[in-house]
Amino acid sequence: MVKLVVGNWKMNGVSAQLAELEKLVALFPRPQTDIVICPPATLMMAAIKIVDVGPIMIGGQDCHVEPSGAHTGDISALMIKDAGGKFVIVGHSERRENHNEDSHTVCAKSIAALKANLKVIVCVGETSHNVPVENAFADIKTLLDQSIPDRVMPQNLSIAYEPVWAIGTGKTPTIEDIAKMHSRIRRYLGERFRTDTANLFRILYGGSVNPKNAAAILNTRDVDGVLVGGASLKSDTFSEIIKAAEGIH
Ligand code: PGA
Description:
By secondary structure, this protein is an alpha/beta fold. It is built from 9 helices and 8 strands. Helix 1 runs parallel beside helix 2, helix 5 packs across helix 6 and helix 6 crosses helix 7 (175-192).
């Protein structure tokens, strides 16, 4: 499966930040990996102009459940699509925490995104640290049950497993625990959807991915890509992570 490497810029970047995207475009004219940058909404149109028809794609960090309406400050999946976006992240733990988004809302957002012909990245992650994977999976299962729509083409939906305690902290689970959790999520997908489609979903890992740990994480069984926050802001560090996904040393 082609790996998916996503950079989530979060609420970072004014126009000057676009220079980092320009560098990435120059560095990866023909990537073997799917590369997506999710800039703040204010930079989205400019970012789309920079990537043009090239292989690097642009995504949104969130979308509203409705296509339009009286929702001050929100943007819809339709708007992201219209701007030229290809992906959208939903259910990031910062949205769940800071905006009280529950999994039912996340599911409605996923449906809205798929309707708008965007590919969707649904984030799930446990808050408790230092618990065995099987226990953490109990939380993850509830999040997956409620956040992922019943009718979905696996090619259009990816899951980002992001332990909340690993986001922005420099801490990561062991490679063994990442492998266990990802294979458990894969098994879940096979049980919930058709067994033969489980391998078509991309399961990303997110939380303190950096150039040092990227290769080990990306070479782990059932890891089909990474969702990167802090280390995606600089082309120097993000390009190292892309190279790890491409197997370039
Ligand atoms: P981080 O963020 O890479 O800065 O830990 C990851 C994320 O929030 O998706």
